[in-house]
């Protein structure tokens, strides 16, 4: 029977590549890196680096055509040394790949917004989840998100998405939308939470349902 398994360091290039394929049509990444071949290269670099950075947290998992990475309670933001290692992994590759400064800036503003809206109380965080487009609709996304819901148990499970097409997907698994935010570039991001046992996360609905920062 199929099932998700924890990934090993040697699995990460393939997982990074499938996540790059999964996010090619994401509206934010399309706007950030309009050229498709360049976008694909950049996504492969950044997704693989993110998985490598999160691997020590112990919850990078997947199957052949899908992968996800979670951050356990109290671990976001990651320690500075790990964030620096992440940037050290992506910076040389983006210079090689000629990622324009405006793309960098757009990405930086989105990451800054994501950091600022991130809840502070104990929760699990879905840093990334994705399925290779050819495998969409085969139940893999369900297995990946249900694994995360199972791990979170009684604690809230938080995520954000830059693609409104994902909102009904998460809603069917019991996630509630707790805010829509926008960068100064006009790039939107939606925050969602599963298991509204945290008053502050639930309270985001009222306090910041549509902020532009
Ligand atoms: C979102 C994603 C992970 C879903 O993966 P998937 O393997 O296609 O999903 P599944 O086949 O397991 O679908 C599970 C159920 O959700 C439904 N579903 C899938 N995508 C949906 C969507 N966008 N809206 C509503 N329902 C959706 C399926 O029809 C299925 O329903 P069923 O169980 O009644 O048959 C996948 O579309 C993806 O990788 N997207 C690009 C990357 C991305 O945006 N990731 C999320 C970042 S926050």
Features:
alpha+beta; binds coenzyme A; 213 residues; 8 helices; Aminopeptidase
Structural class: alpha+beta
Largest sheet: 8 strands, mixed
Runs in which pLDDT lies below 50 for 5 or more consecutive residues are 205-210
| N/C terminus separation | 46 Å
What is the succession of H and E elements?
EHHHEEHHEHEHEEHE
Q: How many domain units?
A: 1
User: Could you report the average pLDDT, rounded to the nearest whole number?
Assistant: 92
The CATH topology is given as Aminopeptidase
Ligand list: coenzyme A
| Percent in strands | 15-25%
If you had to describe this structure to a student in words, what would you say it looks like?
The protein has 213 residues and is of the alpha+beta class. It has one domain: Gcn5-related N-acetyltransferase (GNAT) (Aminopeptidase), CATH 3.40.630.30. Helices cover 46% and strands 20% of the residues. The protein has helices spanning 12-22, 27-32, 36-54, 80-96, 101-117, 140-152, 167-171, 199-207; strands at residues 5-6, 60-63, 66-71, 124-131, 157-161, 175-182, 188-194, 210-212. The chain has an eight-stranded mixed beta sheet with strand order 1-2-3-4-5-7-6-8, sandwiched between helices. Helix 1 crosses helix 3 (36-54) and helix 3 runs antiparallel to helix 4 (80-96). Coenzyme A is lined by residues 22-23, 26, 129-131, 136-142, 159, 161, 163, 165-166, 168-169, 172.
Structure, briefly:
The chain has 213 residues and is an alpha+beta fold.
Structural topology:
Layout: E1 5-6, H1 12-22, H2 27-32, H3 36-54, E2 60-63, E3 66-71, H4 80-96, H5 101-117, E4 124-131, H6 140-152, E5 157-161, H7 167-171, E6 175-182, E7 188-194, H8 199-207, E8 210-212
Parallel strand pairs: 4-5, 6-8
Antiparallel strand pairs: 1-2, 2-3, 3-4, 5-7, 6-7
Helix pairs in contact: 1-3, 3-4
Coenzyme A binds next to β4, α6, β5 and α7.
């Amino acid at each position: 029977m199929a099932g998700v398994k924890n990934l090993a360091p040697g699995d990460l290039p393939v997982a990074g590549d499938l996540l790059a394929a999964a996010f090619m049509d994401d509206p934010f990444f399309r706007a950030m890196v309009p050229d498709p071949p360049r976008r694909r290269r950049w996504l492969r670099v950044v997704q693989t680096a993110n998985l490598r950075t999160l691997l020590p947290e112990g919850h990078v998992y997947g199957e052949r055509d899908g992968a996800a990475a979670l951050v356990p309670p109290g671990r976001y933001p990651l320690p500075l040394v790990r964030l620096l290692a992440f940037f050290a992994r992506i910076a040389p590759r983006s210079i090689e790949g000629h990622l324009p400064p405006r793309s960098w800036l757009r990405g930086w503003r989105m990451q800054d917004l994501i950091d600022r809206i991130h809840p502070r109380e104990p929760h699990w965080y879905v840093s990334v989840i994705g399925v290779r487009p050819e495998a969409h609709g085969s139940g893999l996304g369900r297995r990946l998100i249900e694994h995360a819901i199972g791990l979170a148990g009684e604690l809230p499970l938080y995520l954000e998405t830059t693609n409104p097409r994902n909102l009904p997907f998460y809603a069917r698994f019991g996630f509630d939308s707790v805010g829509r935010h926008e960068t100064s570039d006009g790039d939107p991001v939606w925050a969602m939470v599963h298991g509204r046992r945290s008053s502050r996360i639930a309270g985001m609905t009222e306090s910041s349902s549509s902020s532009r920062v």
